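Fold tokens
===========
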Amino acid sequence: MNSTKGNRLVAASRPALGSRAVRFIAYLALCAAYLQGGIVKLADFPGAIAEMNHFGLTPAPLFAVLVIALELGASLMILTGCLRWLGALGLAGFTSLATGIALRYWELPIGQERFMAANSFFEHLGLVGGFLLVAWLDFHEKRV
């Protein structure tokens, strides 16, 4: 595509894709799993504790509280724009750690379970990249 056609395409797309509504929907989609996870853990705290125990995190109740607070708090920071960069870095770090703990596909025997875990591992790396991009954009926009 030549530069002129590309510029026209960008100009035609800008009203929709450049809107605040689309940006908010993108942030909401990026945070959806963390909002859902935090709400479910909060609604079923014994289940959250069981999950922490499953992954060997002790004391499990403390880890459950910290995970709920991070998933919900950082998501709200991103959605409201209040220290968005910090919320994004928090979820990027959390996702990196949780992925390394929960999706150790290289330890599984070759087969369907390993295939599924590897796919999920790399999908989570994509989320980390998305959160790093959110933090980068927030820094870039607030440059003085």
Notes: The mean pLDDT is 94. The chain has six helices and no strands. The two ends are 35 Å apart (CA to CA).
